[in-house]
Amino acid sequence: LQGLEVVDLWVSVGNKTILKGVNLKLPRGEFHALVGPNGAGKSTLAMTLAGYPGYKVVKGDILLDGESIKDLPPEERAKKGLAVLLQHPPELEGIRVAELLERLKGLYGCKDSVEDLLRRVGLPSDMAFRYVNVGFSGGERKRFDLARVIAMRPKIVVMDEPDSGVDVESIKRIADGIKWLLSQNAGVLVITHYRNILKYVKPHLVHVMIDGRIVKSGGPEILEVIEEKGFAGVVA
Ligand code: ADP
Ligand code: MG
Ligand code: MG
Fold this sequence. Notes:
By secondary structure, the chain is an alpha/beta fold. It is about 35% helix and about 30% strand.
């Protein structure tokens, strides 16, 4: 498959098994949503895909364009085209927005200017001189993180709650960024509790995670069932 494939993935953190056989296919050019109650393991999946230390793959595999990336360090995964936006992007005191974007442009051969990248997510060009995420609002952090990922020209993008703690204007800008990524044939997986972002960009598929497994995948109509009957209603 050209895209991301998660195959019977079991992951433990510390002594606790959190993911219990996750299966997921995200072809390039498609937009999927991953929803589920708090504690289901959604962020654990994002962290595991990113290759964070401490997230131990006990069983199963992660494939990007048919090639296993399970044993690669985070930078190698990113170089191969997998970009992950974490729920809480860290502050990088001492590193300016322009420096970080220039470095990524160089690494990934992106021809957009820093101003173009910022403009794509609706951020002003004077943001270029500020330290990354230091004193940024919630919305500015998420928008900048998306500009960072756009500079990487990724094949697959995983976003953990890009619409949490963010104003409506930012949500619309993030949705525009997702549409642009799709237009470049990237596959995008958005983890969300809310339907906020899904109002502005419609998913091809919605996956429901409960207790470390994807228990249902289907069209956006699943969201209406969840709204009415809760997550339990989806599997009933
Ligand atoms: P979600 O993002 O769906 O809300 P998480 O992936 O954050 O869920 O958490 C899944 C489960 O893993 C929860 O029970 C949580 O308490 C547990 N968990 C998450 N991180 C850790 C950790 N570092 N150590 C131990 N347990 C963790
Ligand atoms: Mg949560
Ligand atoms: Mg989470």
